[in-house]
């Protein structure tokens, strides 16, 4: 460790060691947020509150004295908040608005664990994770609630190449994650070719993440569900914010146009084409390493001068119209865009030649939803939606006088009808129907020699589902069971997919969870590294054809145990997952199987473990994941199984977040995991312009280690406005981690080893004003 890195680490340790001395204790009579006070009372009296988020929104109260009985404490809370605190039993208390009419459409899954790792992250009773960006605290390396970076802090979720466009949930590939934006599937998840989430977190209300036991309302996504939900309710007053960091500038606003109409808006644009920051430089080097963009020498030893321009933006909007107390109309729209243009110049036969290349990537998603609350027990909603994704690239080879045009398009349209019947308190019955049609086009056009390929596939799917959710009055038993029936008319195939989620609390502080599901999906991504989009984007969407590209099917079962008492959470979950119908082209092989078409499966056995201890100002956690992930292809490796490209046997995170006075926050964390798998050439085999490889994925690169730090400070401005400053350091020890190793054959028949490396030390800074 050099002197500079030691000084940085020493500075961080000093901050943590002496921060308690600098903290100032507030007077007991000062009002604090109700959510903060509820957490204190839960720990003090060993009870649990249940409520809808909007019920306690913007509510404040004094902190009751510690020597008061619980009954008197509840009276104080009712007096300060105007809410009703209804005692269900000796351990559970429901919070309701006075004379509140709870309609079926307003039913929310109750929170089981709040402040999971940090504030703004919680779990519900079915084992799913809920992230609330508005309440987000702080995580190491993050100063803003980047949606897809945040969920990678959860056990069992990581990225083998350090991006948000390749998130591996329990060993799956990224295309096996169903990502929804207010109910509409999106096919593009990243900016800057995967280093930044493509979703503005400041507009999102809740992010729902499920790894197993998902609801029957969800089709697709054999590895996980990432459901990004916008605010469903009209707010009483205007709110918004504007800010920037070293990569982009962004703004968000919620504008009540009347008591019945509200407009929600968000916009974000990169500043990278206007100014080069240290963060941009690190991102650029990471994304474009070993590509045409940074390779300034041609195969003919001619020097090529390149000038590139890169930018991205995303916009989002939601229009809310309460037609009546029982009828609501919602319209949402988002557009995600990336653009890269670059100019090549070189001298050919003493003549200056120039050519222009570029790539654009865009996803437009929109939906309109009508909700009807027929009575206090029954509600229905219907949604019409569409999602259009396109990836266009033009690659001009100035040396070989060749131009390649490529296009990948996805058009996904559909309708969803859902009903919710509240049979009685604690018993809900959900039924629904979904019809959607997906069309995928892949085009390649070469001018020298002339070649054109244009392949289009269309598939229509009908789905019926039914689900029953039962919660006992004591809240100790929760059962959700359902089934989804998918019919693919083109293939005349019917797939039945049961889902189950069961949890039981026992001995007051212990809980057991049993989850299981069968799922399927018809869209996937193939990876063609030798004929990709300018060497930058190699993934393109394809559609199942029931022959060379089958329907992907998964089955998964897990059992977990949780202990939660006195701000100590211990969680362990073992699982078994198998996914059938994957193709070799979707796995990104860079060894002897790189050009092979084959169909197989992978199987994962694993354990996710977490221990999280929260003190008054400190939250510390240790998470560990163990997994064994193996491929099995009948036509590859003599039919013998071999390690998956996403096989990370061990992954461990040790981190902490510290808060001083609710305004100043620090987070420091260390991530360690096993090195990624790789395939080495067989040194004992003869070589003749073709690499002879050893056992597939038989070796690993060095272990991955990364230490991150972040800090934010919130301060009051005029009126209700608040300012927030954030500073982060990603990989503060500047460790060089190898993410991927592969080999190529040179013109002189020698072999070169290519190492793709992770981000080095990457600083970031943010400033935001909320009002």
Write up this protein.
By secondary structure, the protein is mostly beta strands. The radius of gyration is 27 Å and the shape is globular. Residues 10-28 and 100-108 have low confidence and may be disordered. The relative contact order is 0.11. The longest helix has 20 residues, at 3-22. The chain has a single domain, classed as TonB-dependent receptor, beta-barrel domain (Maltoporin, Chain A), CATH 2.40.170. It contains 6 helices and 45 strands.
List the defining traits of the structure above:
globular, seven-stranded mixed β-sheet, Maltoporin, Chain A, membrane, mainly beta, single chain, 22-stranded antiparallel barrel, 6 helices, 771 residues
Q: What is this structure's SSE topology?
A:
Blueprint: H1 3-22, E1 32-33, H2 34-45, E2 48-50, H3 53-56, E3 60-61, H4 70-81, E4 83-87, E5 92-97, E6 111-113, E7 121-124, E8 129-131, H5 147-150, E9 157-158, E10 168-169, E11 177-181, E12 184-185, E13 190-191, E14 196-197, E15 204-210, E16 224-230, E17 239-245, E18 248-256, E19 261-270, H6 278-288, E20 305-322, E21 327-348, E22 351-373, E23 378-397, E24 402-424, E25 427-447, E26 450-471, E27 477-488, E28 493-506, E29 510-521, E30 523-527, E31 539-543, E32 552-565, E33 568-583, E34 599-614, E35 618-633, E36 642-643, E37 650-660, E38 664-673, E39 677-678, E40 699-700, E41 704-716, E42 722-730, E43 738-745, E44 751-757, E45 762-770
Parallel strand pairs: 2-5, 11-16
Antiparallel strand pairs: 1-3, 4-5, 6-7, 7-8, 8-15, 9-10, 11-12, 13-14, 15-16, 17-18, 17-45, 18-19, 19-20, 20-21, 21-22, 22-23, 23-24, 24-25, 25-26, 26-27, 27-28, 28-29, 29-32, 30-31, 32-33, 33-34, 34-35, 35-36, 35-37, 37-38, 38-41, 39-40, 41-42, 42-45, 43-44
